[in-house]
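ok so heres the complex, two chains, lmk if somethin looks off
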Amino acid sequence: MKPFSYEIHSRDGAARCGAFYTPHGILQTPVFAPVGTRATVKALTPAQLKELNATLVLANAYHLYLRPGDELVSSFGGVHQFMAWEGPMLTDSGGFQVFSHGDQRKVDEDGVTFRSHIDGSEHRFTPEKSIAIQENLGADIIMAFDECAVPDNRRYVENAMQRTHAWAVRCVNAKTRDDQALFGIVQGGIYPDLRRESADFITALNTPGIAIGGLSVGESKEEMAAMIETVVPRLPENKPRYLMGVGSPEDIVNGVIRGIDIFDCVLPTRMARNYAALTRLGQLNLRNAVFREDKRPIDPTCTCYTCRTFNRGYLRHLATTKEMLSATLISIHNLHTLIQLARDLQLAIQEQRIDAFSTEFLNNYQKHRPPEV
Amino acid sequence: MKPFSYEIHSRDGAARCGAFYTPHGILQTPVFAPVGTRATVKALTPAQLKELNATLVLANAYHLYLRPGDELVSSFGGVHQFMAWEGPMLTDSGGFQVFSHGDQRKVDEDGVTFRSHIDGSEHRFTPEKSIAIQENLGADIIMAFDECAVPDNRRYVENAMQRTHAWAVRCVNAKTRDDQALFGIVQGGIYPDLRRESADFITALNTPGIAIGGLSVGESKEEMAAMIETVVPRLPENKPRYLMGVGSPEDIVNGVIRGIDIFDCVLPTRMARNYAALTRLGQLNLRNAVFREDKRPIDPTCTCYTCRTFNRGYLRHLATTKEMLSATLISIHNLHTLIQLARDLQLAIQEQRIDAFSTEFLNNYQKHRPPEV
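and the predicted structre for the whole thing:
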């Protein structure tokens, strides 16, 4: 298959199951991607990631630009070789991080000037700079430089969207490598007319995939669903759709049934470092004293290394004593839960039972959430 | 073979290569044992330990008694099942930790009263209590409850040795499980006559293995070597000899050529958490800026996962950004270095070239140490 072509194998309602071809392997979709912000999925080796069936791994242009520097990563052969991940990779553009981590940022039509959150040094990102960084990093999928505006000020959101559109055009023009797929990003906050305008604008750029940004940033579940339902029907059928930064179990199911193909989120690994385990029936906080004598695995239905090997009582001991191994073991479980959920969704779509699967899943999940066991 | 029998396969000078039979498998000696203080070798999964050819793993009676409690570990089937380590295990008696971690300790002839370093609660260890804890934990090798006195006060060292002897007798009498081997511990500081007396006393107890304690606690390399040379000739040939808490590369070589079979040390994992890598030519501090662009593995001759997969530049990046993965990857390398060194020493003994091996090793090591590369 041609690199960056997307082949849909099955459809069930709005949901699709397909394959996206990259220079480092095939992404079977729907897919959940672990986040390796600084060229490491925290507390996990690439061998462990592979064992839990991760395919796509993210890294972060902003963080790697600051440390160790994208040119240094390039001198090591790019981010794949640097972190020893042989499968498909995606870098985000730095847009989101400049706005969420960069201090004293000044946005103008040309780009953003900001201070490093590490040492206060001044830096400037433009669409061209973001693409240059991402070309140095060398991921298979790179993202347009965008501005993700929080949805409480329509005027600001509209201006940010217009900038995002202008910057997307510049990213398309700046891109030089043909072994990377640039994805445009739809913005527009929680405003349906802006989302429609943005979907049409980004679609017209004809990038090999399209992302939906600016969701899971404080809006309600209903608003998120409404925005996905507004945007997806306007996107081309034959390109993968990536819902950025979204990745709770229910958000993944809710996204897939509305036609989303790719997800990523720091949630599973961040929760793991706080001793919280994700299951299909809600969360467990493994510091909780109720697990002291519990001989069950985190999730008796789970097939991950952690659940095959350790019980809740041992994990509670690691959590209580703040042992580093707890982050590793819970991260393995949490990532496996989401990666396996995406695989189960693939199967449900292939077997034309996505309605039944998602209804049952969401009912069970709602019933058990939010009280922590 | 009978459990806890020790079969010597080869001898070369004072060095021996053999096999110690335990209910959880055979220990090929000389062997280096990683330390899993709180039932976890920090930052490593049991699968990773197995991959780096660890055989014997330690855990700590004092720490597990305090958290999560030895009775709880027992209810989980013992420390093997609790931490999912299927190979041979050893617990130390808590003696060393009561004296190094316990606050406000009061020693009397019967035992030690101390306060927990965690919450200040009062506890009391006696030889009988230590054996009961270690029987709950269920390791293959358990240790006599001893007092490790620092070597600067002969009178105190002598008194502590006498207590250690009386306590060793009580440990032998208190022991009830026949699937555990109790090792006696020779003490006596840096005083040859005390060491001789202690070696003879402990030998007379006829335990299936004998440990040498109270070394690597501040004395010089020459004093350590002299004490080993004083003790070893008085020990029975057909029992394994365990040099407690000792484990730098040169100390292992120096121990093996003087007839030591078993070593353990927190050094390789503790150093790893401080970004220091052990090699046969000295240490590397991976935070050092000289490694920024270094495309070599930590040790080009090493076959561990870390050296097969990652270069110094990437590890320096992980160290600089304090990523958890650095502790995992450097621990894998450091432990592999010592475990492989013990295996190389086995081979050198089998091939009757321990003199040449140790002379070359120690010359290279001395030449490159201490300046950090």
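quick notes: The interface with chain B takes residues 38-40, 42-48, 67-68, 72, 75-76, 82-84, 292-293, 295, 305, 309-311, 313-314, 316-318, 320-321, 323-325, 327-329 of chain A (CB under 8 Å). thats all i got rn
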